[in-house]
Amino acid sequence: MTFQDYTYTRPDFDTLKPKFEAMLNDFTQAKDAATQIEAFKAINATRTHIQSMQTLSSIRHSIDTTDAFYEGENNYWDEQGPLYEELNVRLYHAVLNSPFINELKAVFPKPFFQLAENALKGFKPEIIPLLQEENKLSSQYAKLIASAQIPFDGKTLTLAQLGPHFISEDRSVREAAQKAKSDWMSANESAIDDIYDQLVHLRDKIAKTLGFKNFVELGYVRMNRLDYNADMVANFRKQVRDGIVPVAQKLIKRQAKRLGLDHLYYYDLPYEFKSGNPKPVGTPDDIIAAGREMYHELSPETGEFIDFMTDRNLLDLVAKKGKQSGGYCTYISDYASPFIFSNFNGTQGDVEVLTHEAGHAFQVFQSRWIDIPEVQWPTLESCEIHSMSMEFLTWPWMDRFFKEQTPKFKFSHLASSMTFIPYGVLIDHFQHEVYANPEMTPTQRKAKFRELEQVYLPHKDYKDNDFLNRGGFWFQQGHVFHAPFYYIDYTLAQLCALQFFKRTQDNDPNVWSDYLALCKLGGTKSFLGLVEAANLKSPFSDGTVASITSTIESVLDAIPDSELN
Questions:
Q1: pLDDT tens for residues 245-277?
Q2: How far is CA 95 from CA 90, 120, 377, 414, 484, in A?
Q3: I need a surface site. Which of 241, 255, 271, 451 has the fewest CB within 10 A?
Q4: How far apart are the C-alpha atoms of 24 and 8, rounded to whole Å?
Q5: pLDDT of 565 above 80
Q6: What is the reported pTM?
Q7: Which region, left, alpha or beta, applies to residue 337 given φ > 0 means left and ψ of -120 to 50 means alpha?
């Protein structure tokens, strides 16, 4: 059975609600723990089906945002999603008030109960209309970005299709391509500002309705920060400013020298090598075939996984008109199927997304044994450990994709981890400022972003680009609109992934077994619990950042620029 055969049927909420309530009554009226556990499992089967239908609808809508049927279904889920969420909240309330709570805690993973508590903190029936409006605004932004039709070089391109021109060997083409992108953003500035302004005020209202001081507090509850807080994140950002920003600046200077340029402008930054950035060799089909070989050689577990994915057409990888931007992995529980979505455009990112999203997919494939929807995946910062680590664990096979360009790819991949982390904490810091000060105007928000950009990315020179000089770069970062406070997760996970990389460099024989064990745990432990289980150091611990940067610097310094041009 392939993805095309997976059946989507819109659930009927009016029919489903009384059925759910009857099962919930069975749960609450149970006379002993064993009966209650069985009732809980029956409820989970229904919840899994609802989630599967929502996921199928979302995937098919993202593949073709112009499809009228799935446009309608997307609107349905924007409207009805919060109503289903209310049913979940009622379940959480019943679980947490169960007279058999100790027996339940002995059977089900601790994070489930922590997640249930957060769900109760983050939801009341009176905010349902506000959540529906938040969903609509988020979808409005996604549709606007997907609708971009940008005239360039005699063609009309989407934002994803414009990407290869950002790394053209011709500097004037790079500048023109980046200008075309920012011109489109600028032309839609008032619309994007308005969407975000509404989201900020709406989220602030939701937070205050729920009794929080502001959305920062609610944002941490929504993101399920189970064992760390905003103060720990602020300290982590400080460690990045002190320890990683200087390393990134050295890499930028090295890049300028390598390119023979006195100064790098914003449109030069994606262009890393005079001979051009590394590009995968072959067609998308060739890349997928090489990926299949790679995963068969990496381990029996990854071999089984990639066969499952390719045989069932669970990958939609190539950019096309009407397709949503970006890349993601999700999971269709009814069919025990991960799904990978991306926008191949002929750049090295095609391979990176295949390894990154495959890391997510492999984790949930290993976690199929978990029948509680909330803990099939871990919390999001932990999810990113699987994906980013997979990028490094597949290094020995990169020659299959890049041939003679492999040294360039490896240098680029490792160096970009250092230059990315400051950007990741910038996005996080920006969102803390925005939601702590919701009355900022759109102009003030952009000015604040530019101010922080100069702290974390002091090399960013936008030349005469007015839109970017005013702080508009973040318009393209979908996480800011769809998933507030998500972005720090990538940086925390990057520190963990780089520890796996360090262990591969040290020829640690337990790297794969620790990674596999981490994947199998799914979300049955919290972030710091998973870090410990994988024999990694907490990114919040003093010295972790420094130990990583010294290793990465030594590896990069050992690669002469003469091998990169």
A1: 999 999 999 999 999 999 999 999 999 898 888
A2: 9, 11, 20, 45, 28
A3: 451
A4: 25
A5: no
A6: 0.86
A7: beta
